[in-house]
Structures are given as structure tokens and as C-alpha cells.
Amino acid sequence: MARKFSNTARRNKFKFICMGLLLCFSIAACQKAADTTKDKDLVFVVNLVDNEKKVQEYLNYHKKIWPEVEAGFKKAGYRKIKLYRFNKSIVMIVTVPENADLNRMGQVAESYSEKCKAWNQLMSQYQVGVAGAAPGQKWAQTEEIYSFVNP
User: Are the C-beta atoms of 58 and 6 separated by less than 8 Å?
Assistant: First the structure.
């Protein structure tokens, strides 16, 4: 036998469903609003020294980044850091907030722990600047020349 609901019961059920949907939409909107900071990707390049043993050491260090280094990245506000390799060239993609001050972020990351500064000094011995970089400059920031986005 089909269950019959009174008009009041139907209205209450309808109100309950509407309130539930409204709550879901409100939560989703709040979550989206909480993350309104836009990010940007910055791309840098560096070459590794012309010494296969040193290149392997560099790669081995990057298989297990020191935890203090990643904690420093987090504290400084880096969203994501990725490294790619082709032979002796390294490409680094850094995702940061759109209004980020990279110099300041680097200082914050290094100040997190002595190990952060030690890491940068250690990695520096494996790196050489790319052609066209300023004297003493190792990492060079690239310029975006093309972008395709499929929304």
C-alpha cells in the first residue's frame, strides 16, 4: 500500500530537501571563495656541471630532498616546485601566488632552518649558468612565448 503524506508533511520534506541543497551550495561557494588567490608558474633553467659523477650525485640528492628544505618551501608559500632534466639541463617550474615576491620567499625558505641554506650551497656546486646568463648567475628565468589552454 502506498504511503500517503499530508500536505504539511510534504511541505516539511520539501523544506528539508531545499535546506540541504542550500547548505551544500553554500559550503561549496565558501570553499571556492576561500581559495581565490591566483597562482602563476615561473620557469627557470640551469645547467649541471660537465662531470657525470657530480650529475649523478645531484640526481641522487633530489631523490630524497631533505625534509627541512620542503618545510622551508611550505613556510615561504611555494605552491609547487617541479624539476625536469634533459642531459645536463634542468628546468624548474615554480608555482607561487600571483603577487609573490620571489626574493622574499627565498629568504623565508632559507631562514626556516640552517639545512635550507646548506642545501642551496650544496646544490650550487653542481650548477652552472646557461648561455646568456649574467656572470655568476646560475638559475635564469625564462620568458613564456606560447600558451595553449583548453578550458
Answer: no
